[in-house]
Every structure is written in C-alpha cells, then in structure tokens.
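Question (not urgent): is this output format expected?
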Amino acid sequence: GTCTMFPYVGFTAETDFTITCLGWEDGDGSDPVEFEVIYYDPLTNEPVPLVSRSRANDMEMLLPPVTVFPTYELTVGIRAVDKFNAKSHLNRTVVAYAPNIDPDFTYTVDCWMSNYTIKEYCLLCTVDP
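Got this back:
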C-alpha cells in the first residue's frame, strides 16, 4: 500500500494535515488494517504518538508546535498494522511553520517542555480578547 500526506507545507496547531492510505490489506484481504501515526521529536528523535489506532483510510490532524528553525521540518511516521500486530512503517516529511499569531490579541503561553525555549516551543493555551 501507499500513504500520502497533504499539504506538504503548513502551520503547526493551525493547518489540517491529511494522511491518506490506500491499497493496504491483510494477507487474504478479509480483515481490516489499522493505522498508527507518530511524529519524531526534532530535538530527541524519539517517536511521539499522534493517532494510536485508526481503521480510517483518511486521517486529518493538527501537528504540535515542535518544529525547529531554520527548516521547520517534521517527520511523521505511519504504521499499517494487521490482525497479528505485524507492522509496515513509512515516513513522510512536512514543513510545519510556527502558528500565525494575530497581533490584535494577547496570547497567554505555557511552555510544555523545559528543554524548549519560549520563543520557539510554546503551546498557545488561551486567547484574551
């Protein structure tokens, strides 16, 4: 089977990225294949779950704000899993820039990991009008 990810360029926590997987089937085609989706942390290269298991061929998701200047690349891993838990794995790389920030709002930010700098790795928690 194959999996594609679109768009190839977008914004973290803002752009709906869609993964479409086609042509995957269990040995005799009688049982459904499930998909797991992860991303690799740009600082540690550790896998982080995005979708634990899904039978949907199309999966839409927001990516977390973890990409690093200057490339803003994020590697997303897709695993096709059969009924015996055998897995096929493939990676797709996208460019996910920091979210657009509206200058007319005051944002409250909360850093979610201590080894990230506030400028590049903050999660937008609330918006104060």
